[in-house]
Amino acid sequence: MLLMAQRVTATLVLIQNIKKMGTQMTDSHRRFLQVLMSHGILEGSAVRALHRHCCEEHKVHYSHDKLDDFVSVINVQLQSLFMQIRKGVSEDDGRQYYALVNLAETEITKMASDYAENELELFRKTMDLIIQSDNGFASSTSILNLSDQLQSKKMKKKEAEQVLQNFVQDKWLSEKDGEYTLSTRCIMEMENYICNTYQDMVNKCNLCGTLTIQGQVCDTCGIQIHLPCVARYFKGHTEPHCPNCNDFWSHEIPALHQADSPHLPSTAPKEAAPAAREKRRAVPSTSGRRPSRS
Ligand SMILES: [Zn+2]
Ligand SMILES: [Zn+2]
């Protein structure tokens, strides 16, 4: 009995020491978290610039290839709050993003404090439309038509238009030429919810393994691939073949948007002097709160 108690104590001490050694939060980590929190989501190059800025500002050793370590120090602290900084990839252009994700609330309840009941219903119905569509988009007309079918409380079209704009502003939806899709933030935060709710309707990308809303589907075997993953995988191929069944890939191969976005490990470029890129992007300011709405 005594021996077991001793062993447990020893293990606890060991865990505590590991925590002390590897996971010390400094002011640079706190600053970094604060900025990310105020934005909700930030693009990879902005995060790299922010990492550098926070280290320099607080006189902490900076190394550009230590961003993942830096983030994991914060993530250890966030565990008890059921939050996590997660890395994800945009379905539009394949660029990398970092988002602060709430793990405690796995449903649309994440949005509950910001929206009225009928606005949340509109969001759920919009999500249905997007996921049931062939291309991962829903037109504004089809969304606005839902506004007088809401069970909680009907909405005027004008009102619904404004709510839709708020969804975009708050980064839950993104808009392209009057068509709406789920934003990168939404997919990162709600991946589990979406997979559980729409089990048979959604697929994971055959190449990167994450949820696919916009993608190309193999005519033969039915696997789905993100557009940026398609672009990267088939780059330079004159006769593209499905990576799963090897049949001819009949879709048009989209152009590769960004050369600097590591997504698939096999083709990830080495981080090449990011200075020139980062100069153009200002470090996000800590006062950059999301715009308030009346
Ligand atoms: Zn993919
Ligand atoms: Zn196939």
Automatic annotation (TrEMBL):
<comment type="function">
    <text>RING-type zinc finger-containing E3 ubiquitin ligase that assembles with melanoma antigen protein (MAGE) to catalyze the direct transfer of ubiquitin from E2 ubiquitin-conjugating enzyme to a specific substrate. Involved in maintenance of genome integrity, DNA damage response and DNA repair.</text>
</comment>
<feature type="compositionally biased region" description="Polar residues">
    <location>
        <begin position="284"/>
        <end position="294"/>
    </location>
</feature>
<keyword id="KW-0234">DNA repair</keyword>
<dbReference type="InterPro" id="IPR013083">
    <property type="entry name" value="Znf_RING/FYVE/PHD"/>
</dbReference>
<protein>
    <recommendedName>
        <fullName>Non-structural maintenance of chromosomes element 1 homolog</fullName>
        <ecNumber>2.3.2.27</ecNumber>
    </recommendedName>
</protein>
<keyword id="KW-0833">Ubl conjugation pathway</keyword>
<keyword id="KW-0227">DNA damage</keyword>
<dbReference type="GO" id="GO:0061630">
    <property type="term" value="F:ubiquitin protein ligase activity"/>
</dbReference>
<keyword id="KW-0175">Coiled coil</keyword>
<dbReference type="GO" id="GO:0008270">
    <property type="term" value="F:zinc ion binding"/>
</dbReference>
<feature type="domain" description="Phorbol-ester/DAG-type">
    <location>
        <begin position="190"/>
        <end position="242"/>
    </location>
</feature>
<dbReference type="InterPro" id="IPR011513">
    <property type="entry name" value="Nse1"/>
</dbReference>
<keyword id="KW-0832">Ubl conjugation</keyword>
<dbReference type="Pfam" id="PF07574">
    <property type="entry name" value="SMC_Nse1"/>
</dbReference>
<dbReference type="Pfam" id="PF08746">
    <property type="entry name" value="zf-RING-like"/>
</dbReference>
<feature type="coiled-coil region">
    <location>
        <begin position="143"/>
        <end position="170"/>
    </location>
</feature>
<keyword id="KW-0233">DNA recombination</keyword>
<comment type="subunit">
    <text>Component of the Smc5-Smc6 complex.</text>
</comment>
<keyword id="KW-0862">Zinc</keyword>
<keyword id="KW-0158">Chromosome</keyword>
<keyword id="KW-0808">Transferase</keyword>
<dbReference type="GO" id="GO:0000724">
    <property type="term" value="P:double-strand break repair via homologous recombination"/>
</dbReference>
<dbReference type="GO" id="GO:0005634">
    <property type="term" value="C:nucleus"/>
</dbReference>
<dbReference type="InterPro" id="IPR036388">
    <property type="entry name" value="WH-like_DNA-bd_sf"/>
</dbReference>
<comment type="similarity">
    <text>Belongs to the NSE1 family.</text>
</comment>
<comment type="function">
    <text>RING-type zinc finger-containing E3 ubiquitin ligase that assembles with melanoma antigen protein (MAGE) to catalyze the direct transfer of ubiquitin from E2 ubiquitin-conjugating enzyme to a specific substrate. Within MAGE-RING ubiquitin ligase complex, MAGE stimulates and specifies ubiquitin ligase activity likely through recruitment and/or stabilization of the E2 ubiquitin-conjugating enzyme at the E3:substrate complex. Involved in maintenance of genome integrity, DNA damage response and DNA repair.</text>
</comment>
<dbReference type="GO" id="GO:0030915">
    <property type="term" value="C:Smc5-Smc6 complex"/>
</dbReference>
<keyword id="KW-0479">Metal-binding</keyword>
<keyword id="KW-0779">Telomere</keyword>
<dbReference type="GO" id="GO:0000781">
    <property type="term" value="C:chromosome, telomeric region"/>
</dbReference>
<dbReference type="InterPro" id="IPR014857">
    <property type="entry name" value="Nse1_RING_C4HC3-type"/>
</dbReference>
<dbReference type="InterPro" id="IPR002219">
    <property type="entry name" value="PKC_DAG/PE"/>
</dbReference>
<keyword id="KW-0539">Nucleus</keyword>
<feature type="region of interest" description="Disordered">
    <location>
        <begin position="259"/>
        <end position="294"/>
    </location>
</feature>
<keyword id="KW-0863">Zinc-finger</keyword>
